[in-house]
Design goal:
Chain lengths: 345, 345
């Protein structure tokens, strides 16, 4: 049934990559039949006799988010013409791993909001958030083991270790004014892009794709993840809490050395340098500082430069798909790459 | 090389189970060649470019503890005559999972001491403890995946989910005076015995043992874990901080409904009941309360009764080994079962 779906939605062969629109809807629509099963699997595996576990997990998972990682896994498997449903298990697993890291991150960062809702640790307490994160992580591995795909298990267990190293590195480097652009890329490669690439790579592996296609989808996910995270970090200096579903200005308040901040600091001097030294270096922030920071981000050209870097990664993501035939799945993934850097929420 | 070791240490065939001594040394000695490799593997896999990770992990892992779970895994594999070294990976993995849960537990419980050292979160902060725990958990799965033993992976991923459910259940039931003995057994089956049984079962599975032997070693681990945890909970009302390497009285201070407390409350009335209601039910504790609680534990016979329950589980653990031939490994595991309930530290 699933391979029939692919053929019926194949677009005109003359689709021009250059005209690709920033759009996630095409991908969501293509993935819908798979996502129905995946969402059912997610709900089933959140269950526990210990009532607080599904309640807390549902608070975050039901709030939605973009489900980008499951979509990536499904699209990779479908693009490679999978004939099994292993990608359902891997999709649920990557969403669980992602949710677990969000739960732990919010405890680590003492965040107030997540996906437009009060952060779970403020409702159920940090201990429950830590333990339910652990539970989801364990459940993710149960889901993977059921497929019997050792190679996908290898990919996702390695990615999980890389993610936590990225998180720790970011924690160590908070309020560190000496962080370079290369350090930043290393951090977001680990903490964000590693799970994007693991999602697409494991989807390809689970479908029995060729090594060439597996490498291409790994590269797509990695570059997409980098583009996506940079745009996230840009939006943190642009949006407000209502738009983003999280606190805009959080990165500034936490002193996170993101690309906009690194580029802005590199491009400023004099009293502006003193501003960054006080607000980020010494963590002395007062009302109005964030708005001043936003102004400096624009006037220094830092936001534009960061956007340009993000677009470069999005272009690389699209280029990685060149070995695949034109078709609905490829086009949807290209649109996702453009969307990742053009989105405003 | 390894099967030779087994034969050379085989004891006289007339060893009598009834005379088994409370002893962990025989097991430690038998496992030493394996443990050299396992400790090297543990050290190698703690490594990370992010310096705080090995530093924090080493603080806990190097502090030692009894390494009971790796010893169990090795003994199970050797008892079943394994001819490979998969049990090295599983032993390192169970130690990592155990260490990860300790790191998270100490954050959850705000514990001050662990293995006689200041708890890691008080040195590196709770965020680092949470993330390094996650790192070790991910590394555990990497180690398991390398063996290619899907069934052992299945056992340990399921055990990981069960452990976290037990932890959450315990958290929810803190200061709950209505907790029954059955609730308590359910909690410790999950939070402690599940990893003991997974260690011994996965060792048996990795060795290619028969279903009968796998079941027997699962049962041994489960009953040993129950006995071990009950004795731990008894010691929390007996020992002092210096002896135990953790805070004696912690359970009382945290209002943990352990078997000694459940039995003591069931056996007391009048002013003693009011004491438990105030100190555990209402969390109103003052200096001298713990010493009074210790006194009630003895006078009510609760500690003796708890000890009797623990001995019952230790006996069941020993009984589970009856289908194995007499020999050094079986005898060492029997001694471990007796040791688990007779130890004073």
């Amino acid at each position: 049934m699933d391979s029939a779906n692919i053929d019926t939605v194949r677009p005109a062969p003359d689709a021009t990559p250059e005209l690709v629109k920033a759009d996630v809807k095409a991908l969501v629509s293509l993935c819908e039949p798979d996502m129905v099963d995946i969402n059912a699997l997610i709900t089933a595996r959140m269950r526990s006799e210990v009532a607080v576990i599904p309640a807390l997990a549902a608070h975050l998972i039901a709030a939605g988010g973009k489900r980008l990682r499951p979509l990536l896994c499904v699209a990779a498997a479908r693009l490679c013409g999978t004939t099994n449903t292993h990608h359902h298990n891997f999709s649920a697993a990557v969403e669980f791993i992602h949710t677990a890291t969000l739960l732990h991150d919010d405890v680590v960062d003492s965040s107030q909001l997540r996906r437009g809702k009060v952060a779970a640790h403020l409702i159920w307490g940090a201990p429950s958030s830590v333990l339910v994160g652990d539970f989801l992580f364990a459940r993710a591995f149960e889901l993977m083991v059921e497929t019997g795909s050792l190679r996908s298990l290898d990919i996702l267990s390695k990615a999980s270790a890389i993610i936590t190293q990225g998180e720790v590195l970011q924690l160590m480097k908070a309020f560190d004014l000496t962080l370079t652009q290369a350090d930043y890329i290393e951090i977001i490669s680990s903490k964000t892009a590693a799970l994007f690439s693991a999602a697409s790579e494991s989807g390809a592996v689970a479908s029995g794709a060729s090594e060439e296609k597996i490498r291409a989808l790994y590269s797509y996910g990695m570059n997409l993840g980098l583009a996506f995270q940079i745009q996230d970090d840009i939006l943190d200096y642009q949006g407000d809490a209502a738009d983003l579903g999280k606190n805009a200005g959080d990165d500034f308040a936490e002193g996170k050395s993101t690309l906009p901040l690194i580029l802005a600091m590199a491009a400023t001097s004099g009293s502006d340098s003193a501003f960054w030294e006080r607000t980020v270096g010494k963590r002395e922030q007062k009302p109005g500082d964030f708005q001043h920071a936003q102004g400096l981000m624009i006037s220094s050209g830092a936001l534009d430069a960061a956007r340009s870097v993000a677009r470069g990664y999005a272009d690389m993501a699209r280029a990685a798909l060149s070995l695949f035939d034109q078709g609905a799945w490829r086009q949807a993934l290209e649109s996702l790459a453009v969307y990742s850097v053009e989105r405003q929420t």
